[in-house]
Amino acid sequence: xxxxxxxxxxxxxxxxxxxxxxxxxxxxxxxxxxxxxxxxxxxxxxxxxxxxxxxxxxxxxxxxxxxxxxxxxxxxxxxxxxxxxxxxxxxxxxxxxxxxxxxxxxxxxxxxxxxxxxxxxxxxxxxxxxxxx
Length: 133
Fold this sequence. Notes:
Shape: globular
Distance between the termini: 19 Å
Largest sheet: none
Order of helices and strands: HHHHH
Strand content: under 5%
Radius of gyration: 16 Å
Number of helices: 5
Number of strands: 0
Helix content: over 70%
Oligomer: single chain
């Protein structure tokens, strides 16, 4: 049986960006209602955790076209630690230092995290041969 051909890297990056956009919309749809009930950073954290589960499945099936496993699921939050750190630092900087609206700042912070999250998620979700090819 022949191995399935690996799509070009740019195709994977485009899919990753599309999934990231959808994940951001999911995050934002959770964040806005929670922001009415909780302080902005607590709402941000709760929405972030919720959207991480969706991100795992979308990236597994659509971006990297691989099978989800419990191991990958348990390791996937490690990819989000980088994302969370970059976005959190960006959120605090944008709100606290630049005075940006707490309703808009999470979107701007998310954009800064894309390249970091892509590299880490690719490392977790793909076998070494698929990452290099």
